Amino acid sequence: MTDCIFCNIIAGEIPAAKVYEDEGVLAFLDISQVTPGHTLVVPKKHFRNLLEMDSVNSSLLFEQVPQIARKIMKATGATGMNIINNNEEVAGQTVFHTHIHLAPRFSEKDDLKVTFVAHEPNFEELGKLAEKIAQTKE
Ligand code: 5GP
Ligand code: ZN
After folding, report:
1. Burial class of residue 59, CB neighbours in 10 A (0-12, 13-18, 19+)
2. What residues are labeled active site?
3. pTM
4. How many domains does the chain fold into?
5. Of 30, 72, 103, 108, which one has the fewest beta carbons inside 10 Å?
6. Which of 8, 32, 33 has most ligand 1 atoms within 8 Å of CB, for mutation?
7. How far is CA 19 from CA 94, 121, 123, in A?
8. Which ligand 1 atom minimizes the distance to the CA of 86?
9. Of 94, 96, 97, 100, which is best to mutate to test ligand 1, by the most ligand atoms within 8 angstroms of its C-beta?
């Protein structure tokens, strides 16, 4: 047993309803089921979140997302899907092992709200910010 709940699921020490597994990736139903079929896709190797991952490991993870998403869509009869990844507490992360939420959607009234509050564009500010980000080393 480790402190990480998802590492324990990967090790088979805690049960989970698995929907996909390969050498590097596991997908299982989220215990909270915001919508029926809500699935978490996780790398088997422990990373705190996506911000800590390199391109090889993140590629292995994301490579599997579209096909798992399509399986969920087909199996549940969903007509859309939100694919969400939270990084750090301020962004809503509660389990600190990288995971991608796949939440199938059946209605705009599902128990999931993703809201973008739009602001009036200031093109000068956009240009400056884009330039700053572009010039910043990771
Ligand atoms: P986060 O808030 O970090 O983006 O999402 C963590 C997710 O993990 C939550 O949606 C929560 O329901 C799910 N979760 C937490 N503990 C367990 C567990 O023991 N088993 C499963 N299947 N999901 C869990
Ligand atoms: Zn872990």
Report:
1. exposed
2. 99
3. 0.97
4. 1
5. 108
6. 32
7. 22, 42, 45
8. 4
9. 94
Question: Which residue range(s) make up the domain with 75?
Answer: 5-135
Cβ count within 10 A of residue 7:
17
Ligand 1 site, CB within 6 A: 5, 16, 28-32, 86, 92-95
Distance between CA atoms of residues 79 and 73, nearest Å: 7
pLDDT-derived band of residue 1, with 50, 70 and 90 as boundaries? Answer: confident
* Residue carrying structure tokens 């009036």: 120
Percent of the chain with pLDDT over 90: 99
As given in the structure block, the two tokens for residue 102 are 């796949």
* Inter-residue contact 65 to 83 (CB < 8 Å): yes
Query: What is the rounded distance in angstroms from the CA atom of residue 136 to the CA atom of residue 138?
Result: 6
| Residue 111 identity (one-letter amino acid) | D
Judge whether 100 and 27 are in contact, CB under 8 Å: no
| Token representation of residue 12 | 């088979």
Helix ranges (DSSP H) in 3-91: 5-10, 55-63, 65-76
